[in-house]
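Weekly puzzle thread! Below is a chain. First person to post its structure in token form gets bragging rights.
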Amino acid sequence: MSQSTTLPAIPPSSAQGKAVTLQFSDNTLLPLLLGDHDRHLVRIEQALGVRLSCRGNRVAISGESSRVDAAQATLEALWRRLERGESVGRPEVEAAMRMAEVDTDPRLPLPDLPAIRTRRGVVGPRSPGQAAYIDALASHEMVFGIGPAGTGKTYLAVAQAVAMLQAGKVDRIVLSRPAVEAGERLGFLPGDMKEKVDPYLRPLYDALHDMLPSEQVIRRLANGEIEVAPLAFMRGRTLAHCYAILDEAQNTTPVQMKMWLTRMGEGTRMVVTGDLTQVDLPAGTRSGLRDALDTLEGIQGIRVVRLGSRDVVRHPLVARIVDAYDQRAAAEGDKRREARRRGESEATGK
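Winning reply:
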């Protein structure tokens, strides 16, 4: 079997520097690791701040010690993918680098990362936060996945639901979203009620089609094994022996959230996902997701996983956009606190 080995280190250029050389024994896989015109190596150099050079079947890495370790872990993880017959492209390179970052949770060693296995393939984590989330989905009956767009909150929850349905661990999947009017009013949209609410539920359908062949999605929707419906349709029901996912939960009210959480019946797994920075409720209305976290976090059997910009697995620009908005929000919060402090000081002085 092809494998990579660490050869004796090249003498470091500084006290804190480090250099290693990896040797890869399968020359047919090596071009896939390097990428067209070595583009994968170039990306790793840019992102991790190391120097990479390839000669024959060897790749030399030099730079600051912790960054060299991260680059080595990245290349070895990508090589293992190739040995398993899996593809390596830009998304896989980005994911491997995120998983190999120096401050990755030490409880999650790369070879032992959790994964979701469906008949369509294995869905693995692409960031430390996603690894923690997948672990929570497998081990807890109720999970809250909180984080910005692009962190895989809904996608991974649907993958776990499909895996459990295919394994016979649940009888059906229930996917729901609040149909919140974000700029358009339902009454003015064309079509009957299903046609009005389907656009709000489209991301859930998209995730299902990624996990299952289209004919299976259609068949399972028709026979009730999979149900996709607005949150309002859940009132008065008991969800037993199913995998229930509430998406975009930041747009629920506290009453709606309590209603959803109390639908949980025997043999049911429940996942609630949302982004507290994208609340579309009317001004002054408290988010049911925020209310639930304040009330329930820490209760035995409930796991809350918070994902951040480091866990964004869409285009790299998305992570930077999320960071920019977070920084602006933090700065505005600091200004408001300073203004309140000054006002209180002036009032006290008077």
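Puzzle host: Confirmed. Bonus trivia for everyone else. The mean pLDDT is 81.
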